[in-house]
Automatic annotation (TrEMBL):
Pfam families: VWA. This is VWFA domain-containing protein. Residues 37-134 form the VWFA domain. InterPro entries: ECM_Assembly_Org, VWF_A, vWFA_dom_sf. The lineage of its organism: Eukaryota, Metazoa, Spiralia, Lophotrochozoa, Mollusca. Transmembrane segments: none annotated. SUPFAM superfamilies: vWA-like. It comes from Elysia chlorotica (Eastern emerald elysia). Residues 1-26 are annotated as: Disordered. It comes from the Eukaryota.
């Protein structure tokens, strides 16, 4: 019950409806600003999701979160903490960094729940290169 309430609070705080209309100045600011990804917040939200049998999943089935990121977390320590929190709850975090300058060590050590679950691809088309491995790992428990 506590996770459900926290999930609702998260949704209200982070997904408030705003006008999709932007001035040209606001759009330019969004496009040129140096930004970081709030990866830890995404992983914290995943922790609040009901990944148990309440949604019809088997209690004994492995649970997975697939995280796709640019590898620039606003807080590496918080991102690692949230990934380990999910791992402690028996949820595997598969992390995929997308971009030409993504640091594989950062993805493996900070984002994924274990190093072998961290990948880097150059662009979104590169996701196809790890798709078969991920499907095999999730469906068969092996690579």
């Amino acid at each position: 019950m506590q996770r459900k309430r926290k999930r609702q609070e998260y949704m209200e705080d982070h997904f408030k409806s705003t006008s999709p209309e932007m001035t040209p100045e606001e759009e330019e600011e969004v496009l040129t600003a140096e930004r970081y990804t709030y990866t830890s917040k995404g992983l914290a939200f995943a922790y609040l999701l009901p990944l148990g049998s309440g949604l019809g999943s088997r209690q004994t089935a492995d649970k997975y979160v697939i995280l796709i990121t640019d590898s620039k977390p606003s807080s590496s320590a918080s991102t690692k903490e949230q990934a380990m929190r999910l791992k402690a709850d028996n949820v595997h975090v598969i992390a995929i960094g997308v971009g030409a300058v993504v640091d594989i060590a950062n993805i493996q050590q900070t984002h994924a729940s274990s190093p072998e679950l961290g990948f880097v691809v150059r662009d979104f088309f590169g996701l196809m290169s790890v798709r078969d491995w991920i499907v095999s790992f999730i469906c068969n428990g092996k690579t």
